[in-house]
Input
Amino acid sequence: MSAITLNGASRTVAEDTTVIDLVAETVGRALGPDGHPVDGGRLGVAVAVDAAIVPRSRWHRTPVVQGQDVEIITAVQGG
Output
């Protein structure tokens, strides 16, 4: 198990957790290896690990490791 910070809160994750695993759990939707929802809908999410943006194409192969700070930002419609 690894201790990380997810959206400002302490969190423990399995050693083999990747960014795509965290995003899928956070948004409550199944994601394909390309980071897009398997239901065909839009996702509207951006991810930063230790303040560096992780492109969606790399979510499935970007591990989350001990001590990292992960931010998952969801777009919200309106002002």
Summary: The mean pLDDT is 94.
